């Protein structure tokens, strides 16, 4: 139980620190191409690996450029984490694009379209209920 609490606490620390780095630490211009935010961090039980999920707003080209920039900044991010978060060993860092917000948005859009199609046109059925 204490281990899972520690892992989630470390994940939260990493999320906060990487979010700060995205705002003003990473100098790679490609990272600034799309708006980037850290959506989640998954840390292994032994604290050796950290998957950092990022949501990127922009065109497919901007997303690809941003991911390339993040991949090249991995060493910098890891060394900064080592300096900012006190752990025996700094975890290996991997950035993963999180498209769940995008998928959720598409699903909502489809649901809204279905709702519009189901509504009676010009109140046809409303008159029958009177």
UniProtKB/TrEMBL annotation:
Domain of life according to the entry: Bacteria
Main location: cytoplasm
Identification of the protein by name: Ribosome-binding factor A
Family: Belongs to the RbfA family.
Function: One of several proteins that assist in the late maturation steps of the functional core of the 30S ribosomal subunit. Associates with free 30S ribosomal subunits (but not with 30S subunits that are part of 70S ribosomes or polysomes). Required for efficient processing of 16S rRNA. May interact with the 5'-terminal helix region of 16S rRNA.
InterPro entries for the chain: KH_dom-like_a/b, RbfA, RbfA_dom_sf, Ribosome-bd_factorA_CS
One GO MF term: ribosomal small subunit binding
Native species: Fischerella major NIES-592
Oligomeric and partner information: Monomer. Binds 30S ribosomal subunits, but not 50S ribosomal subunits or 70S ribosomes.
